[in-house]
């Protein structure tokens, strides 16, 4: 190696990377201009997509990855960056490392969301898109039976869409707290996404969780008595649920992703659903998830490395090898051995949320 | 609206709403339930041996007062034959412990339990008043905190008791779980959730198994937390309904930032879902089984599943924050200090890692090559289990030295050599992050524990007796 050149002195009024433009944002104490920041974010994401590169792909056998899209800034940014990556691959090599199947699960305002889906589809027409209502989860093997446990109702299993809607509504109405409703919503959503990935023969699921979101989940799941599920929640490539999960945005903070979407030209804002602003903390309606979200939103401002460190620490936990697992929770799939009352079908976390179905 | 009746006896008026399960019950049923549940915790985890001598760490506060009362009651009710002693620590600050020690003394009379008060002066040769006279007001809190960590173990050893119980409750444990997640400390998370912990040598087989306490060393003391599944609120209720005599030791100083954050989260969680305190404890216990040990093996979940047999060591760390702490002259730590410090350190680590991968080709190699590395190893005392001094600190994110045999002595730079103290050329390199103090044998992440370091400084200025190694036999 030739001798080191003396580095020119850094001009602190300019972007730390290019030293040409004025900084637009500070990323973990480093001032960056909009251009350099717009490169920084995709670099972090693409680095996490290592195992899906072109050279790992088999030309005759295209890999399809499922991207669940919530229209939030994280999953939308992920879709945008991966679309760019695939375009780059096609230009350079004439083929791509993978294809995307974008799935949206409708869980609330169907009208507003269907118009968003159209816009996204227009902007990224190269991918396959599909959407389904959350109540479809009741058609997934075993789910309906799970919630039938307490049913004194001997209604015939009428399995059309509207009856599913109704069953789901009843289920949510029977849950006693906002925390339980949020918890069950997440689990059902995940079940449906996994089921769809299997049906569409997707090789993996790419979640849009930022490191902030993963830190929130770590503490929230801990508080919900689901500590034993943590190694699966934050690890890349784990297949507790039958299809491996990846978190390509795991090295980025929520606030960085939000800035990224607003810096883009044209901005992503009109394909992102604006989050309803929650009224000031009233603990009556606050969920454990909300609490942790608020907490890490504030920690992220001053102590971003601490947020990232929570996730790195959790990732050090060793999951039980799946081949050693004898029984899994019928609702959330976590191994039951030693983490649940004897002969229970559900783990402690699920029993806490669904005491009426624990039989 | 008519008053609720107790859900258990259906006769008395319900006075207590249990946070744990929302049950509305009367005072008598509550007391009976609290005692039954504590007994279940004790028997299901085999905490005590029949006839065992147990020292109750008594601060005069609510937790240890309730613990003493419950243990006394259960011991008589179930004929456990435990030999219970109250053990209090006196830091030697004029006036500071008077009220709380008075409460302990009254309890000693009321429960007919012998009380032993051990002072820092007896344990370390220095009272806090003397320390302040020596080092001034500033910084004396460090001494107090560090000395307190080992005080219960040393005090128990003086009494010839090999088992200390402390009043840590579910709220304390939950708080510690969240705190250690926030600061990324899995080993401490494990320790906090273990109902029993032991000092380094306690796990080794003892010479006499007949319970003769003659040779209890303070490095040979077991600690346990019989109330770790009890809500703080229920402990207060129990003390109230049993009319227990305790001294409120609300700490007026703000806790350090990580603990403060965790405490606020726990309070909010309790408001959202009261059960979540125990859920955090449960999560912590489950996670502790997934924490890899120094060899990278999983402790509980994989391989042998007997998590209960795993030896968990303690370094007295909890004592620092647990009830009754604080030496009265303020922590002197601005809130946020620890978080800012850790943020800085993590950022530096990240930078170093990034730069390391970018520039490592041009790293100077001269210092390593061609250096004599086999003739001048400094041989330390054989018992000293060393910690990674060589790489700066015993932090588990750093590499552990590779396993090596006598023929493959790791090559070290000059600087490392100066700092490194190997236990002997033939000994395998240290593998555990937590080792023992080479002077006193106490669990320590450094070669010499903080207490010994501080004492060295104090004694240099005014030579007195140091810590006696392993000979504190009553
Ligand atoms: Zn720039
Ligand atoms: Zn479950
Ligand atoms: Zn009653
Ligand atoms: Zn020492």
UniProtKB/TrEMBL annotation, chain A:
It comes from the Eukaryota. Keywords: Cytoplasm, tRNA processing. It is found in: Cytoplasm. PANTHER family: CYTOPLASMIC TRNA 2-THIOLATION PROTEIN 2. This is Cytoplasmic tRNA 2-thiolation protein 2. One of its GO terms (molecular function) is nucleotidyltransferase activity. GO terms for biological process: protein urmylation; tRNA wobble position uridine thiolation. Its main location: cytoplasm. Plays a central role in 2-thiolation of mcm(5)S(2)U at tRNA wobble positions of tRNA(Lys), tRNA(Glu) and tRNA(Gln). May act by forming a heterodimer with NCS6 that ligates sulfur from thiocarboxylated URM1 onto the uridine of tRNAs at wobble position. Prior mcm(5) tRNA modification by the elongator complex is required for 2-thiolation. May also be involved in protein urmylation. The keyword Hydrolase does not apply. Pathway: tRNA modification; 5-methoxycarbonylmethyl-2-thiouridine-tRNA biosynthesis. The lineage of its organism: Eukaryota, Fungi, Dikarya, Ascomycota, Pezizomycotina. One of its GO terms (cellular component) is cytosol. HAMAP family: CTU2 (MF_03054). It comes from Oleoguttula mirabilis. Belongs to the CTU2/NCS2 family. InterPro entries: CTU2, Rossmann-like_a/b/a_fold.
TrEMBL record, chain B:
This is Cytoplasmic tRNA 2-thiolation protein 1. Plays a central role in 2-thiolation of mcm(5)S(2)U at tRNA wobble positions of tRNA(Lys), tRNA(Glu) and tRNA(Gln). Directly binds tRNAs and probably acts by catalyzing adenylation of tRNAs, an intermediate required for 2-thiolation. It is unclear whether it acts as a sulfurtransferase that transfers sulfur from thiocarboxylated URM1 onto the uridine of tRNAs at wobble position. Prior mcm(5) tRNA modification by the elongator complex is required for 2-thiolation. May also be involved in protein urmylation. Keywords: Cytoplasm, RNA-binding, Transferase, tRNA processing, tRNA-binding. Residues 313-338, 370-434 are annotated as: Disordered. PANTHER family: ATPASES OF THE PP SUPERFAMILY-RELATED, CYTOPLASMIC TRNA 2-THIOLATION PROTEIN 1. Coiled coil: none annotated. Residues 54-250 form the tRNA(Ile)-lysidine/2-thiocytidine synthase N-terminal domain. It holds the Pfam family zn-ribbon_14. The keyword Iron-sulfur does not apply. Transmembrane segments: none annotated. One of its GO terms (biological process) is tRNA wobble position uridine thiolation. Belongs to the TtcA family. CTU1/NCS6/ATPBD3 subfamily. InterPro entries: CTU1-like_ATP-bd, CTU1_C, Ncs6/Tuc1/Ctu1, Rossmann-like_a/b/a_fold, TilS/TtcA_N. Residues 435-465 form the Cytoplasmic tRNA 2-thiolation protein 1 C-terminal domain. Its main location: cytoplasm. It comes from Oleoguttula mirabilis. Gene3D superfamilies: HUPs. It is found in: Cytoplasm. GO terms for molecular function: nucleotidyltransferase activity; tRNA binding. Pathway: tRNA modification; 5-methoxycarbonylmethyl-2-thiouridine-tRNA biosynthesis. GO terms for cellular component: cytosolic tRNA wobble base thiouridylase complex; mitochondrion. The keyword Hydrolase does not apply.
